Amino acid sequence: MTDLTTEQRQAFALASRYPAHVDAARLYGEEFHRDAAGLFRALRARHGAVAPALLEGDLPVWLVLGYREMHYVLTRPELFDRRTPWNALDLIPPDWSLQWILATESVMRSGGEEHERRSTVLHDALAAVNQFELRARCERIADALIDEFAAVGHAELMSQFAQQMPVRVVAWMLGFPLAEGPAVVRDLLILMDYTAEAPAAYGRLLARMHDLIRQRREWPTFDVASRMVHHPLAAPDDQLVEDMQYVVSGGQQPTAYWIGNTLRLLLTDTRFAMTLAGGRRSVGQAMGEVLWEDPPLANLSAYWAARACQMGGYQVQAGDMLVLGIAAAHTDPHIRPDQTTGAGGNQAHLAFGHGTHRCPFPAQELAEVIAETAIEVLLDRLPDLSLAVPADKLRWEESVWFRGLTGLPVVFTPA
Ligand code: HEM
Fold first, then answer.
1. 48 in a structural domain
2. Which GO terms describe its molecular function (predicted)?
3. Average of per-residue pLDDT across 253-260
4. Which among 312, 388, 331, 340 is positioned nearest to 156, based on CA atoms?
5. CATH code for position 32
């Protein structure tokens, strides 16, 4: 085996250990990014609700495309969990860019009683956020961001607005001192870019969280950090830091893309045409439609099979990894027989996950207030906002996980 190239070794491992994954669809690369939805349709036609697939590095996973099957995985913690070691760990290339899937030790990776304790702390700390104060703060932050570009008559709304909103609100809500806000914002945005700078930014963020915990232990105030530190079920500091870090970073991209995808819908779909003539559908309706049609988290990583089982006609082995296709499940013909009609006000989407690890309800509400306030303030301030490029020139991020725009250039009358 010593004379084999890395690719040959990988191919040999697939053939001997994961025969169903030989020549499986790749969830990366140009072809995938050109038309992920088309690929998922083809996979559903060929394999049904569960398909063998390959992550970057040709690492084998089961892609769950069916709504019912996804529901099944998310509600059977005894069968699918976050702790079972992956049986393909030895195949991971040393420079694998998806290492973060395995790296986190946050609430999201915990299970059983530990998960219950950590998610209760998070739930209680987030649920106590004052909704009036939150909305007022979101308005002020949105106004301040718009002030920076309102006079020039054009803007790129992803980087200048949508990406800036969640981190600013969450940094305030968690309790970072005002003076530290800009540094937290800068480091989080570096982290989200996954560049070579990311590990240093991550280290600085963790150090700031440790400081915040120390301060709030001595001088509690009315912020989320104080409530987490002084909660009767509070975890040791290292776990608290991981969970605070997840609150700041876990909501960042999904909320930013929720804002961006909704603005795109409002600006491109005549049903939402922004005219003063009336009859315009509401921002809330557009946000709800986006959760079905362009869910910001398009694919969810990762669950592992704790035991061998049958899924969608395939034999899944203990330790196999599953990727949950949220966007694909939303177009499952079993729940959407007529793909041309929208889901209306139906709330049964899986955009916030489901089951024990679903996005905590107070976090969902928080994200909704941030996104809705941001969009409403923007439309109020710049009522004749329109796209600066044809709609088909807008580009989606080349990510298997997220569904979000790389940019959203707009023009408007300078205000
Ligand atoms: C500031 C806003 C947000 C915060 C603070 C937040 C926080 C969290 C936390 C702490 C978890 C982990 C729950 C656990 O494992 O027990 C989580 C999970 C999740 N969140 Fe959010 N979230 C936010 C916004 C969003 C948005 C906008 C979306 C998508 C539309 C979203 C989708 C999800 C999903 C799908 C999960 C489940 C992940 C899984 O099963 O691994 N979140 N969120």
1. yes
2. heme binding; iron ion binding; monooxygenase activity; oxidoreductase activity, acting on paired donors, with incorporation or reduction of molecular oxygen
3. 97
4. 388
5. 3.30.43.20
Please report, as a single letter, which amino acid is at residue 164: Q
Query: Which residues in 39-144 belong to E strands, given as ranges?
Result: 50-55, 59-64, 80-81
Same domain, 113 and 79: no
Co-location of 209 and 90 in the same domain: no
Report how many domains make up the chain: 2
What domain range includes position 69?
1-103+298-350
Q: Determine the atom of ligand 1 nearest the C-alpha atom of 247.
A: 5
Q: Does position 4 have pLDDT exceeding 80, yes or no?
A: no
* Claim to verify: residue 367 and residue 335 sit in the same structural domain: no
Q: Are residues 286 and 208 in the same domain?
A: yes
Q: Is residue 410 part of a domain?
A: no
Q: For residues 382 and 359, what is the distance between their CA atoms, to the nearest angstrom?
A: 32
Whose alpha carbon is nearest atom 21 of ligand 1?
A: 359
Q: What pLDDT score was predicted for residue 282?
A: 87
Ligand 1 pocket (Cβ < 6 Å) reads 107-108, 119, 122, 166, 170, 246-247, 250-251, 254-255, 258, 296-297, 300, 351-353, 357-360, 363, 366-367
Ligand 1, residues 359, 361, 369: which to mutate, most atoms within 8 A of Cβ? Answer: 359
Give the percent of the chain with pLDDT over 70. Answer: 95
The whole-angstrom separation of Cα 313 and Cα 326 is: 20
Query: In the predicted model, is pLDDT for residue 136 greater than 70?
Result: yes
